[in-house]
C-alpha cells in the first residue's frame, strides 16, 4: 500500500495523549476530522490511527487518537509523519497535482534541453518552489507559476518550463 504524507507530529500537548501536528497538505480540514483514519508512518511499518478529537492552535492541529489517551502512549511518536493511503486522496482539478506526482519528473526547457529532475518542493510563501537537481551545476530553484511552468506531462514524466531572466545563473 502506498502512503502520502499529510502531517508530522512535532510534539505532545498536555498529558491526555494529544499531539501537535504540522500539516503538509492543502486539505487539512478534510484530513483531520473526528472519525477520520490516518496512518503513522514508521520505518518498516505503519500504524492505523482513528482521530477521536481535533482542535487547532495557531497553524497547528491538535489531535487525539482512539486508544491513546495518555502522554506516555504518544510521546514516542514525536517527529514521525502522518499519512493517508491512495484511496483517501482527493480528486484534483485539471492542472493541479500532488507533490508525489511532480517529484521525479524531468524538467526540459522550451528548446527541449533537459535541465534536470525535480527532487523536492518547497512551500516558502505565495507559491511553491521546485528544486531541480542538475548534473555539474548547483540545484535550480523554479517558482511554480504559470509564467515558468508551461506544461506538466505526468504520463511522459516531463515538465516543460520557460526560464525567465535571472532564474538560471
Automatic annotation (TrEMBL):
Record's subunit section: Binds ribosomal protein uS19.
Pfam families xrefs: PRC_RimM, RimM
Keyword annotations: Chaperone, Cytoplasm, Ribosome biogenesis, rRNA processing
Top-rank taxon, per record: Bacteria
Annotated organism of origin: Liquorilactobacillus cacaonum DSM 21116
GO biological process: ribosomal small subunit biogenesis; rRNA processing
Gene3D superfamilies: PRC-barrel domain (2.30.30.240), RimM (2.40.30.60)
InterPro entries: PRC_barrel-like_sf (IPR011033), PRC_RimM (IPR056792), RimM (IPR011961), RimM_N (IPR002676), RimM_N_sf (IPR036976), Transl_B-barrel_sf (IPR009000)
Protein's recorded name: Ribosome maturation factor RimM
Keyword Transport among record annotations: no
Homology family: Belongs to the RimM family.
Domain notes: The PRC barrel domain binds ribosomal protein uS19.
Residue stretches making up the Ribosome maturation factor RimM PRC barrel domain: 100-167
Localization of this protein: Cytoplasm
Keyword hit for Cytoplasm: yes
Gene: rimM
One GO molecular-function entry: ribosome binding
Database matches in HAMAP family: Ribosome_mat_RimM
Boundaries of every RimM N-terminal domain copy: 6-87
Amino acid at each position: 500500500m502506498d502512503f502520502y504524507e499529510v502531517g508530522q507530529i512535532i510534539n505532545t500537548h498536555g498529558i491526555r495523549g494529544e499531539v501537535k501536528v504540522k500539516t503538509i497538505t492543502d486539505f487539512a480540514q478534510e484530513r483531520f476530522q473526528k472519525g477520520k483514519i490516518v496512518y503513522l508512518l514508521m520505518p518498516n511499518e505503519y500504524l492505523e490511527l482513528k482521530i477521536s478529537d481535533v482542535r487547532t492552535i495557531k497553524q497547528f492541529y491538535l489531535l487525539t487518537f482512539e486508544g491513546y489517551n495518555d502522554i506516555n502512549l504518544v510521546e514516542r511518536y514525536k517527529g514521525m509523519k502522518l499519512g493517508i493511503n491512495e484511496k483517501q486522496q482527493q480528486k484534483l482539478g485539471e492542472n493541479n497535482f500532488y507533490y508525489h506526482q511532480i517529484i521525479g519528473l524531468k524538467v526540459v526547457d522550451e528548446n527541449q534541453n533537459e535541465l534536470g529532475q525535480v527532487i523536492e518542493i518547497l512551500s516558502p510563501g505565495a507559491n511553491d518552489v521546485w528544486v531541480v537537481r542538475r548534473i555539474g551545476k548547483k540545484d535550480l530553484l523554479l517558482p511554480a507559476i504559470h509564467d515558468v511552468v508551461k506544461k506538466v506531462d505526468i504520463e511522459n514524466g516531463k515538465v516543460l518550463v520557460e526560464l525567465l531572466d535571472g532564474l538560471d545563473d
